From TrEMBL:
The keyword Ribosomal protein does not apply. It holds the Pfam family PEP-utilizers_C. Its main location: cytoplasm. GO terms for biological process: phosphoenolpyruvate-dependent sugar phosphotransferase system. This is Phosphoenolpyruvate-protein phosphotransferase. Phosphoenolpyruvate binds at R291, R327, N440, D441, R451. Residues 154-222 form the PEP-utilising enzyme mobile domain. It comes from Corynebacterium lipophilum. It catalyses: L-histidyl-[protein] + phosphoenolpyruvate = N(pros)-phospho-L-histidyl-[protein] + pyruvate. The active site is at H188, C488. It is found in: Cytoplasm. GO terms for cellular component: cytoplasm. One of its GO terms (molecular function) is phosphoenolpyruvate-protein phosphotransferase activity. The gene is ptsP.
Amino acid sequence: MTDRTVLYGIGVSAGTASGPVAVVTPAVGIDEHEQPCTDPDADGERVVAVLEEVSASLTARAEHANSETSKAVLEATAALAKDRGLVRGIKKELKKGTGVTKAVHDAVEAYAAKFRKLGGYMAERVTDLYDIRDRATARLRGVPEPGVPALEVPSVLVANDLAPAETATLDPALVVGIVTEAGGATSHTAILAAQLGIPAAVQVKGITEALVDAPAIALDGGVGEVIVAPNESDVAELEERSRRRAAALAGSSGEGATRDGYRVKLLANIGTADDAAKASGYDLEGSGLFRTEFLFLDRDSAPSVEEQTETYTKVLRAFGDRRVVVRTLDAGADKPLSFADLGEEENPALGRRGLRLSMAREDLLDDQLKALAAAHKAVPEAELWVMAPMVATVEETRWFTERARAHGLPKVGVMVETPAAAIRSSHILDIADFASIGTNDLSQYTMAADRMQGELAELLTPWQPATLAMIRETCRGGEATGKSIGVCGEAGGDPLMALVLVGLGVSSLSMAPGKVNAVRAALRLHDRDTCRQMANFAVDAPTAKEARENVLKIADPVLRDLL
Ligand code: PEP
Ligand code: MG
């Protein structure tokens, strides 16, 4: 019988859960006894056939996916299984005489190394590549594909990492919690779990080892706490936390505002028209970030102006007269586009991404702006705002705003995601109508830490005083020019950080729709002066840890129930 063990990771989807453990079937790996390849053509055909089967089974799962995002992730993995470069790599291995399962592993490893080198979004897709490898290997060895076991009772899923293909099709009625040993706060698993509303913790080091024979497991996906073999009082304590959370959330409705009535718009981050339809049903005030690149990724050619107009019109309609902040194409680096490839770069995150790519491919931006203007004409009651990603200079701001205004777009702004834009925000805001802080990238560039690296989580937390100082500078520019500053990075969805952001001068927060209630409740518990005091405490703290602790000390005690 396993002893009770408490482990901590990163909480990525709030809520508590407990139940029997369901371990995700591990992959079987290379067949150590396989024969070397003597007939590369025949073995090559066999592998291609298996990859086709894997792709077909992923496509079938995509059809049953429970959201557009899940569907897109599964379809992308299905397409990757038939990637010609991958197949070529495997055939090359077979020609060397390598046995089939080893050929698959070696070729995938070489491909994964290329993806890692590209960094960002491509590096995240290494998980998808390994998923394909493991499914193909299992089929080649004649054993069942690895993955989630068939569940009969509500259970907590435990895995080293969970492939998107697995996460996307989980049934929240049967999977009540997710715990993974690996994975990062911005991994597919984390994003999809939050979208499905399943409490989840990632980077829980030692969980797979601690689990041996454990009958049950409990977790708090808000703080990232995991209890292996919990006792009755653990389960009762988690249930109590859940009750307290529900009580703290009770009555959280209506417009966002501090206790003394300072208005803070609460908005949703969306990526598709389907997301817009769902988010518009929530009690929130619009969308503060529509990541339009989701319309472009995994396509061989850009969508036409007509197709884009149709999608944007749907999004604007979904929100009626509420605000929708559309971000123009943020491609390159972590989100490469096959039809706008500017060539290989040594450091893609520092390369021609975001607005820089739009400047190299003006045609893509112009089509997008044209489509946005047409959509606005179709839904004139919409409060349409448009902004550019990855802006660093006044010239870039001027270039973008002039272009967008020439298309008749009424409110044109920029994202503040670089330290350069943060410390020069008043100059930028002399030109732009508003700014929205992308804390994910602003953290990455302030701290020189790749945002996709789970291991760098401590540098990437928005509680880093250096990052907070950047946000303060941005807000000072907003104050000096009378322009509004929002936050649309992940930081905005953290109820405690939201208070600091408001104290710094932010007037809108955009986040995953499921996080709005907790942020609204946190705001209602505090007045603006307390938020300002919190902001000073946080920026003046010597370390990120102290910044958070100092703020928590002066927060209303009920706030802890919201975390
Ligand atoms: C950000 O960088 O914080 C942001 C909102 O943009 P994305 O996460 O899409 O890069
Ligand atoms: Mg960004």
